[in-house]
Amino acid sequence: MGKYICCTGFLKSTWDQVCIAFWQRYPNPYSNHVLTEDIIFREVTPSNCLISRRLLTKTSRAPRWMERYLPKHMASSAYIIEDSIIDPQKRTMTTLTWNISHARLMSVEERCQYQINPEKGSWTEIKREAWISSSLYGLSRAIQ
Asked: Which terminal Cβ of the chain has fewer Cβ within 10 Å, N or C?
């Protein structure tokens, strides 16, 4: 059993601006915890959707109580896979992100759906869902 979190929000920018910002977010001085961003795969489908897979390396320090369970090199950085699909006809962007580091201890998956807000066409609506789970006996609740 895991923990599920869901929320919806609004970005006061057009869908086009949000998509452009998504691809230009790294590197930037406000996200210096992201060390690398590597494109593993990218394809334009016959229906003109852009499908991408990226590998991100982050310096995300593990919580102090968890550091004793991790090898020293694993406590200071994390590897994350990010899949994205941009559909310019439907004007949607979907991202799915999950950790590959520490996966035996815990799994974190996030899915974001970006689309034009139907009430305010100049805003973008984002629906975020996250699943956090751990099968580590005795610590799964604390991790979640």
From this structure: N
